[in-house]
Amino acid sequence: MPFVYILRCRDGSLYTGITTDVPRRVQQHQTGQASKYTRARLPVTLSWTRQVRSWSQALKEEYRIKTLTRAQKEALLQAARKQGSSTL
Which one of 17, 42, 44, 61 is least enclosed by Cβ atoms within 10 Å? Predict the structure, then answer.
């Protein structure tokens, strides 16, 4: 099952991605092997994850999150922390 995830980069920016193996993907980001964006902003920390039913749904959720404003993304992270769900 795929996951949508959000990383917080060293500069405070947020990166959204999808994967089927969150720990492996975070490790790839940490070693600079996952994306140019995060490679230039190491280290990164995992801030949020959500498991979805299909790769198609993951792509849609990733796109939805990427279109949010920074304030909306921060609100999503804060709400998840308060609920204690959808986060690692």
Answer: 42
Instruction: Give pTM, 2 decimals.
Output: 0.92
- 74: containing domain: 3-83
Judged against a pLDDT cut of 70, whether residue 17 lies above it is answered with: yes
SS3 79: helix
Side-chain-side CA neighbours of 79 within 13 Å: the count stands at: 6
Residue 56 belongs to a domain: yes
Residue 79: what are its φ and ψ, rounded to 5°?
-65, -40
